[in-house]
Specification:
The protein is mainly α and 329 residues long. Helices cover 55% and strands 8% of the residues. A three-stranded parallel beta sheet has the order 1-2-3. Strands 4-5 form a two-stranded parallel sheet.
Length: 329
């Protein structure tokens, strides 16, 4: 007998173009998970509305580009179910039912609720959609009854709220939902061209969809050791974002050489950036090639998404039948 593989579920908002941080922090992990688990990866387009409801003009474009990036980066639709959240209406139905039973105080204690409001002051986030997005997130997860959800430590409170909501439902009606466990993942902090964490909102990102000339140009503008003013000044790789890229993309001998030569001013910042640009281009070239093929064959992409919708809907329908039986509605 073969043992059924345990299930993993994860999603990503289409709030902009995917960048190196998304690739190294999430997609590389997803690629490894699909080797061992029954994976469900979804585009959380309804979640994108929680902060972008006033301007939805590019959401469809971002959905498409995100899917292309996933597939080009190695997500295999024959080994994982890839789908779009809004194409499976059961997400919204379960969200509605959960919203009837969750105490408002649970949502108000969400650690990122006030943090996000402070971070994105230019938008009005005093909406139910923003306050209640953890309810939709819980519905996204519990609909597929996963064994594990890949998260970083900062996301553990969100997953615990999902578990609390599952327990509340089970206690009110009858046991339907499991307690999904965290699959703790170390997400590397990828710095952007300005030295801050790479982010869509900071304008400091190198995107997977950028062409080679664009990648090289962005790297040329990347900040280095701020204390190194002249070419002849010795540098400190420990405070240089470019050196962080070397540690990600360059082989060990190059990393060690750059470390030595920077400290003695034997190499300048321009040459150092060119070295890492060459390595980065080598890693990105297969993704660019796959992106070009997917972009030129939209029917193939549509077929993948439709197949994913069917497979996800089959699981979601079964769960919702159990929910309606439990609630006697």
């Amino acid at each position: 007998m073969t043992t059924a593989r345990k299930r993993v579920l994860s999603g990503m908002q289409p709030s902009g173009l995917l960048h190196l941080g998304n690739w190294l922090g999430a997609l590389e992990n997803w690629n490894a998970l699909q080797e061992e688990y029954d994976c469900y990866f979804f585009v959380a387009d309804w979640h994108a509305l929680s902060t972008n409801y006033a301007d939805t003009t590019r959401i469809r474009e971002f959905v498409r580009e995100l899917l292309i990036d996933w597939l080009a980066a190695g997500i295999d639709p024959t080994r994982a179910t890839v789908f779009v959240q809004s194409q499976v209406p059961d997400h919204a139905i379960l969200h509605l039912l959960f919203s009837m039973i969750i105490p408002v105080s649970w949502l108000e204690r969400n650690p990122t609720y006030k943090e996000k409001q402070e971070e994105i002051k230019e938008r009005d986030l005093s909406t139910y959609g923003f306050l209640g997005y953890p309810v939709l997130q819980a519905a996204d997860i519990l609909l597929y009854k996963p064994d594990f959800v890949p998260v970083g430590k900062d996301q553990l409170p969100h997953l615990e709220l999902t578990r609390e909501l599952a327990r509340r439902f089970n206690n009110l009606y009858c046991p339907v939902f499991p307690d999904p466990q965290e699959h703790l993942t170390k997400f590397p902090k990828v710095l952007g061209t300005d030295g801050r964490k790479m982010s869509k909102s900071y304008g400091n990102a190198i995107n997977l969809s950028d062409t080679e000339p664009v990648v090289r140009q962005k790297l040329k503008t990347m900040i280095t050791d701020p204390a190194r003013v002249r070419r002849t000044d010795p540098g400190n790789p420990d405070v240089c974002p470019v050196y962080d890229f070397h540690k990600i993309f360059s082989p060990l001998p190059v990393i060690e050489q750059v470390n030595r030569d920077c400290r003695t001013a034997a190499i300048g910042c321009i040459d150092c950036k060119k070295l890492v640009a060459d390595r980065m281009v080598e890693r990105l070239a297969p993704i660019w090639e796959a992106r070009a093929s997917l972009t030129q064959n939209p029917r193939h992409l549509n077929d993948i998404v439709e197949d994913g919708r069917r497979r996800a809907s089959a699981v979601a329908t079964t769960t919702m039948d159990e929910v309606r039986d439990a609630m006697k509605i």
